[in-house]
From TrEMBL:
Organism: Thermovenabulum gondwanense
Name listed for the protein in its UniProt record: UDP-N-acetylglucosamine 1-carboxyvinyltransferase
Binding site residues for phosphoenolpyruvate: 41-42
Name of the encoding gene: murAA_2
Catalytic reactions of this protein: phosphoenolpyruvate + UDP-N-acetyl-alpha-D-glucosamine = UDP-N-acetyl-3-O-(1-carboxyvinyl)-alpha-D-glucosamine + phosphate
Protein role: Cell wall formation. Adds enolpyruvyl to UDP-N-acetylglucosamine.
InterPro entries noted in UniProt: Enolpyruvate_Tfrase_dom, Enolpyruvate_Tfrase_sf, MurA_subfamily, RNA3'P_cycl/enolpyr_Trfase_a/b, UDP_GlcNAc_COvinyl_MurA
Residues noted as binding UDP-N-acetyl-alpha-D-glucosamine in the record, renumbered to the chain: 111, 140-144, 323, 345
Subcellular location: Cytoplasm
Enolpyruvate transferase domain boundaries: 26-424
Residues at the catalytic site: 135 (proton donor)
GO biological process, one term: cell division
Xref: Pfam families: EPSP_synthase
GO molecular function annotations of the record: UDP-N-acetylglucosamine 1-carboxyvinyltransferase activity
Origin superkingdom: Bacteria
Length: 435
């Protein structure tokens, strides 16, 4: 994949992965073989932010080569963290943090940059972070993060596009989240680990990445109980120490490759997976008529390229993940009958629909529902990735479509899929990257 070389005012510039770069896929081929899933993007990003909580050295093993990881590394480096790298290992030392501000130039490139607020506030009592704003999938407010920080005693000021937070000392509190937000749960958890007294997060998010972050923090010396349930209790400690850690495998990358097997009617072994994290995706693939065999850390799929119609409703974990909605919709566009997909997590996560329609899919959107009338075949076409998972969905559609599909704006996909061209090619897919 492309190497990060710098920023311009609108987009990330990568050699081999810039805005003008696209994927070209020749569809209609059967795939076979095995594919190894990388460490989870959505687990490694908060863990990198959490390394700011200690002056000790943290070693994060097997970090995936992703553009979002490059941005988070840039963010923590801009605060004064030293971030060395030995192959896939990051060695981070945050002993000499000398800035408490994450600027617009970085935060607007990746919303998860906002996750440095909790750690900065916890350790230094101050942080000034650009407001992330909306993106292609929704308006994505940060009110729940701020509600949590306020409850812990931080003073919050909003102005000129920035959130400024300060506190002499954070004090433990009970915080009820109106929605189990993943980011708010992570940010509040990171703020609370060094607060005085006990914090309770009610209606907390239960995603596996929350448990992984809690495991990381507990290994550093934090006292967190209940991560993975909707009540998380955090007993504040005085300080945390540096540790070595490897995050969980990426359940969304794994799910995407399972759909690659499903949509092409192929037999694929997906390795380095925790299948308990993929229960809702596996359940829907079985309903579609795929055969799934779960082994210890592997899943074998024998796909069904003409799936049974199924209905899907995205929900917070353990419900069906919104991050797999677009990929499943690409698959269901080939179903025999009519399927329905309801998106409850983000209000605008159907941007892939118009692009799938350009490939022959028959989909109608009504509010938060999409009604998919299965077609016999998709046909290759030039299409545009509007966000990360929309891009993945279009690649999957391209694998099944007759003829050639060009997926423009590959940089969206490079945010979250490590070596996607190499991985799919190793299964026999005809996919390449072109400028
Ligand atoms: C880096 C990362 O881990 N990203 C994931 C994380 O995003 P992220 O953490 O941004 O997602 P949230 O769980 O916070 O968002 C879920 C919903 O809550 C709303 N909300 C969130 C915060 C807030 O303060 N107020 C509010 O209203 C959002 O607008 C959205 O409608 O979880 C999402 C939901 O599983 C995934 O799709 C993203 O891939
Ligand atoms: C929506 C996603 O990421 P982010 O929250 O960083 O936009 C995603 O990973 O699908």
């Amino acid at each position: 994949m492309g190497r990060y070389t710098g920023f311009d005012s609108r987009i990330l510039i990568f050699s081999g992965g810039n805005k003008l770069s696209k994927f070209i896929i020749e569809g209609g081929r059967k795939l076979s073989g095995k594919i190894k899933v990388s460490s989870a993007k959505n687990a490694v990003l908060p863990v990198l932010a959490a390394t700011l909580l200690t002056s000790g050295e943290c070693v994060i093993e097997d970090v995936p080569e992703l553009e979002d990881v490059n941005v988070m590394r840039e963010v923590i480096a801009s605060l004064g963290a030293k971030c060395g790298q030995r192959e896939r290992k990051f060695i981070i030392n945050s002993a000499h943090i000398n800035s408490f501000e994450a600027p617009y130039e970085l935060v607007r490139k990746m919303r998860a940059s906002f996750l440095v607020m909790g750690p900065l506030l916890a350790r230094f009592g101050k942080a000034k972070i650009s407001m992330p704003g909306g993106c292609a999938i929704g308006s994505r407010p940060i009110d729940l993060h701020l509600k949590g920080f306020s409850a812990l005693g931080a003073k919050i000021n909003l102005g000129h596009g920035y959130v400024e937070a300060s506190a002499e000392k954070l004090m433990g509190a009970t915080i009820y989240l109106d929605f189990p937000s993943v980011g708010a749960t992570e940010n509040i958890m990171m703020a609370a680990v060094l607060a005085q007294g006990q914090t309770i997060i009610e209606n907390a998010a239960k995603e596996p990445e929350i448990i992984d972050l809690a495991n990381f923090l507990n290994s550093m010396g934090a006292k967190i109980r209940g991560a993975g349930t909707d009540i998380i209790k955090i007993e504040g400690v005085k300080e945390l120490s540096g540790i070595s850690y490897t995050v969980i495998p990426d359940r969304i990358e794994a799910g995407t490759y399972l759909v690659a097997g499903a949509i092409t009617g192929s037999e694929i072994l997906v390795e380095n997976v925790l299948s308990e994290h993929l229960k809702p995706v596996i359940a829907k693939l079985i309903e579609c008529g795929c055969q799934i065999f779960e082994e210890e850390d592997k899943i074998l799929i024998i796909g069904n390229s003409n799936p049974n119609p199924v209905d899907i409703k995205t929900m917070p974990y353990p419900g069906f993940p919104t991050d797999m909605q677009a990929q499943m919709m690409a698959y269901l566009s080939l179903c025999k009958g009519t399927s329905m997909v309801i998106e409850t997590v983000f209000e605008n996560r159907f941007m892939h629909v118009e692009e799938l329609k350009r490939m022959g899919a028959r989909i109608k959107i009504e509010g938060r529902s999409a009604v998919i009338e299965g077609v016999e075949k998709l046909t290759g076409a030039p299409v545009k990735a509007t966000d990360l998972r929309a891009g993945a969905a279009l690649i999957l559609a391209g694998l099944a479509a007759q003829g050639v599909t060009e997926v423009l704006n590959s940089y969206h996909v490079d945010r979250g899929y490590e070596n996607i061209v190499e991985k799919l090619s190793s299964l026999g897919a005809k996919i390449e990257r072109a400028e």
